[in-house]
Every structure is written in structure tokens, then in C-alpha cells.
Amino acid sequence: MRELIRRIDAATPAGRDRALDALRAFAILGVVLGHWLVTALVADGGTLRGASPLRHLPVLTPVSWVFQTLAVFFLVSGEVTARGYATARARGTSYGRWLGGRLSRLFGPVAALLAVWAVVTGALVASGVGAVTVQTLVRLVLSPLWFLLVLAGLTAATPLVARLHPLWPLTVVLHIDVARFGLGGPAWLGWVNVAAGWLVPYCLGAARSRGEARSRWSGWVLLLGGAAATAALVRWAGYPAAMVGVPGAAISNLNPPTLAAVTFGLAQCGAALLLLGPLRRALRRPAAWAAVALVNLSAMTIFLWHQTAMMAVTAAALAADGPLPGLHTVPDGPDWVAARLTWLPAFAVALLACRAVFHRYERGRRARDAGRGRARGRRAEHPPLRRAAVGRW
Fold it and tell me: How many domains does the chain have?
């Protein structure tokens, strides 16, 4: 373990902002834990149906405040992507080549996921599994992919939005919500906020790449202003308190994003900016940095396969005598919550197995070729963690 930690520390470029990587790791793990805690597969005879404890237990609403961390991810992505594009331009790299490299790292692992689940879906249908069960499982696998589509769109638009002030997309979100909820406009207008809502933290990150919004004062303004605005919207404007979708609710804060979700995201961004200094100091410790680096090197695999890991444990446990609490039962009481917490280590082990099998698709073709070369005995710098791999995520 000490040797692995030493190699990771030695392979990290000296100028890398480790705190940004820590925020990205926190955001990814927040999404994973959030899904594992608020998504249930209820065994109803021979059928699996999706359910959410937030519908039955509103007291769990604060869970969505902690684990709905997408705004932090888009903040970090905006800063890193804008900085990377500026560096590519300075080196003479064309926009097409730069974008192709960025998108290939996103959609290579997605292709592997879709191929595997195409085979799984065909096998389920051929074996006579009911349509409701198949639809439930496939929906859980595909639903997180909207996030990657939005990220890809914002990445492609980086040259246009890199200098856009976050107040502009925030104004769009405000007017869309006024039209939808105040003036009785059509519901489809809300889908404009899928781009505009996540463009707010993305533009904030891009502004930081230009040297703006770097003071602690900016962090406090975002944290306190965003929290106050969100509380006011929930208290007096009728927005739901949960920051994720709740089955059966009239309004979802996330699907599509509402003004409350955006202001809440700004509060999260403010908290993240205030944590940058302490994180930088903490990540001077090689062991702490190694943990963050390993999560980032597997971020796409973790994100894409975490639902599959949960479903694999759920399906394997169906062989037990009767539905298991916290896994197959209706999430309608504190007993379910306590039981679900005991299942989280099993989900994590299944996810580690998925990571072992599918991480090679995240590494990319060059890294896989290098891995085959090492197997033939060629020397590599800092094996098995190459400097290029650490610098590329």
C-alpha cells in the first residue's frame, strides 16, 4: 500500500489542483450513494418495480440535500474544461481534435455499458422475464446517462460559453419557471432548463478559470445567498423541498431542473469553494491524495456501473427464501432504512467487481495498449499508474 501511495504521488503533475479532484470525487460518490439510498427495487410476486423511500418517508428529504451533488461536478468541469481548452489553443490544437479527445473519454465507457445491457436485456426477454421488470431495470441503467449528454453538450459549447456570466443562464431559468408555474405555460418549456440550469455552475467554473470568483467572499455570497433563495422558494413559492425527483410529486426539482434546484446548487458551489483551502492542505498527505486519485481514475466506471452493481446484488438475493428487508421490500419505514444501510457494503463490493472488469474502457486505447506492452515486458514510468493517466482524467 505504501508503494502504491508513493507511485500515485510521484505520478501527479506538480501544478495539479488536488482540491478540484477531491470535489469531483465527492460529487461522483454523492450521486452513487444518493441513488443507492433513494432507489428501491420491490419484489412483487415475480416482478421487480421501482420505488423511492422519499415518497413514503418525507423525513428523509435532507438526504437529497447531501447527495444531490451535480452542481459541484459541473462547477469543477467548467473550470477544468475551460482551462484545458485555453491550453489546447495555446498549443495550436484544433477545436475538433480537442473535442474529439474529450468526448472519446466520455462515450467509450458508455458504449461498453450499452453493449453489455443490450445482451442482458435480450437474455431477460428470451428467458421470459416480465416486461415491467425489464423496463424497470433498463430505466435504472439508462436514466443517469442524461447527465453525460448534458456534460457533452456543455463541453462542446465551451468556446462559446467560457466567457458567459452565470447570471445570464440563471435569468433564463428564472423566466422559464415564471412562464411555467406563474403564467400557466406549457410543461415542455421546463426542458430548456436542462441546459440553462446546469450551465449556471458550469459558467461559474469557467469564470474561475479566468481568475474570477476566487475569494472567500465569493464563496460566502454563493453559500448564504443560494441557501436563502432556496429556502424562500420552498417556503413561499411552492417548490418541493426534495432536490431530486419523488414519484407521485406534482413538481420535480431535478427533472427538469427548477430555479430552486439551481439556487441550491449555487449554495453547494459556495460551500465547495470555501472548502478548497482546507482540502489543499489535507491533500498534501500522500495517502489522502491517493484515495482521491483512485476515485477520479475510475470516475466514469463508478458512475456508469453503480446501478448495475445494486441490481446485481438485488437479483442474486432473490434466490433467498422470501423478500429481504432493505432490498426487496417496500421502503415505507425506518426499518427499511436501517436494513438498506447494511446492504451498502454489498453494493460497494459488486461495484468493485464491475470496476475490475470494465475500467479498461475508461483508460482508453492508448492506456490499454500500454498495458499489453507491459505484459510483454516493456518498461513503463511509475507502473502501474502512468503519469499520463493521472494527468489525463
Answer: 1
